[in-house]
Write a structure and sequence with these properties.
The chain is α/β, with parallel strands linked by helices. It has 2 domains: 4-222, Phosphoenolpyruvate-binding domains (TIM Barrel, Alpha-Beta Barrel), CATH 3.20.20.60; 226-253. The protein is built from 10 helices and 8 strands. The chain has an 8-stranded parallel β-sheet with strand order 4-3-2-1-8-7-6-5. α8 (175-184) links the parallel β6 and β7. The longest helix is centred in the middle third of the chain and has 17 residues, at 147-163. It is globular, with a radius of gyration of 20 Å. The termini are far apart.
């Protein structure tokens, strides 16, 4: 069973594999095959069909966290604190406790080191997140490209390390900056669009499985093309139903 401390101890020894997961069936398939399952608020994009993650609510996160937790017993489960759920320390703590009760082992707010520090002090394991912050971003794309922005991200990483996060997501930043941050902090960095030198990697499972195909960010490698397989199966099923080839005796009582 992966724990927050075993993940922390992996820095410099073994790369950390993280995938997003949103439901029971996927969790059952992925359990024990990755180090961390993240109920990301990318749920809003790939499952709920919103154009932004900020439409995701606490109720959404609780339902999906509980579903993942019913399917996974070996892998560490982290859940995003959705937009608007950690504006104050008190709210952040209340909502984190609700996610932990639903089955998460850790929560992930976007940046906000002072909130992270408060949660950690209260005993809530926190995964940090800097770089591209989809909940509040006005401009998507690579962050920290100029010197000032890069320096700020190094400062942000250090602030989250001081806050006591057990790992730190680096989203959409240049590889050289991700390498500098990774070498400069004592906690494992988990990259997404942050190059090969982070301590671990996270992808949105629907992207890497080829289930969400509206667009493909440069940093996504497709490990399967399940869209094709699903469309093929659905078309075959409809054909069979229409021509009376399914159900046959074999599938009848
Ligand atoms: O919501 C999400 O999927 C995430 C990852 C991209 C890190 O936060």
């Amino acid at each position: 069973m992966r724990t927050v401390s075993s993940i922390r101890a992996m820095k410099g020894k073994e790369k950390i594999s993280v995938l997003t997961c949103y439901d029971y069936s996927f969790a059952s398939l992925m359990d024990g095959k990755v180090d961390i399952l993240l109920i990301g608020d990318s749920l809003g994009n790939v499952v709920l069909g919103y154009d932004r993650t900020r439409h995701v609510t606490m109720a959404d996160m609780l339902r999906h966290t509980a579903a993942v937790s019913r399917g996974a017993s070996h892998t560490l489960i982290a859940a995003d604190l959705p937009y608007g759920s950690y504006e104050t320390a008190k709210e952040a703590l209340k909502n984190s406790h609700a996610l932990l009760k639903a089955g998460a082992h850790a929560v992930k707010p976007e940046h906000k080191p002072e909130i992270a520090a408060f949660l950690v002090k209260e005993g809530v394991p926190v995964m940090g997140h800097i770089g591209l912050l989809p909940q509040t971003a006005t401009k998507y794309g690579v962050q920290g490209k100029d010197e000032a922005a890069a320096k700020q991200l190094v400062k942000d990483a250090k602030a989250l390390e001081r806050a006591g996060v057990f790992s730190l997501v680096l989203e959409s930043i240049p590889s050289s900056l991700a390498r500098e941050i990774t070498h400069g902090v004592s906690v494992p960095t988990i990259g997404i669009g942050a190059g090969p030198d982070c301590d671990g990697q996270v992808l949105v499972s629907y992207d890497m499985l080829g289930l969400f195909t509206k667009f493909k960010p440069k940093f996504v490698r497709r490990y399967a093309q399940l869209d094709r397989e699903i469309v093929r199966a659905v078309e075959q099923y409809t054909q069979d139903v229409k021509k009376g080839a399914f159900p046959t005796k074999e599938y009848s009582f």
